[in-house]
Amino acid sequence: MCSSDLIMLTYEDCVELSGLTNEEIEAIAEHEHVPNIVALELGHYLLETEAGVPAIKEIILDDIHEAEACGNLVQSAKLKLVLQHFVSQHPYHEVGQ
Q1: Burial (0-12, 13-18, 19+ Cβ within 10 Å), 49
Q2: What is the phi/psi pair of residue 80, to 5°?
Q3: pLDDT of 31-86, one tens digit each?
Q4: Quick one: three-class SS letters along 19-75?
Q5: What's the CA gap between 30 and 97, in Å, rounded?
Q6: Which of 28, 23, 38, 36 shows the shortest CA–CA distance to 78?
């Protein structure tokens, strides 16, 4: 195989394949204190497991509580929108279940 035959995925390609949005990945990265690419891998893995959707929901909720505890209402509001979108895209585990 020639090097000209190799295809490289960009970060954006990985995001599109992950089933997550940039904001959801950023929330996971913030919670886990890891780079976004690692959070992307973790999030994609979690989505493939039975407990993954509830786990990601809890991660986002933890981030919301942390933002509120720090008085960062703008970040809290942003994360609430991220959670709302996540739940709408992954209805298997709705808020309150």
Answers
A1: exposed
A2: -65, -35
A3: 999 999 999 999 999 999 989 999 999 999 999 999 999 999 999 999 999 999 99
A4: CCCHHHHHHHHHHHCCCHHHHHHHHHHHHCCCCHHHHHHHHHHHHHHHHHHCCCHHH
A5: 25
A6: 23
Distance of CA 37 to the CA centre of its chain: 11
Provide the whole-model pTM: 0.85
Residue with tokens 């950023």: 26
Dig out the tokens for 33 from the structure: 């204190």
Q: CB under 8 Å to 45, separation ≥6 — which residues?
A: 52
3-class SS of residue 96:
coil
Rounded Cα distance between 44 and 96, Å, is: 23
Contacts of 68 (CB under 8 A, 6+ apart): 76
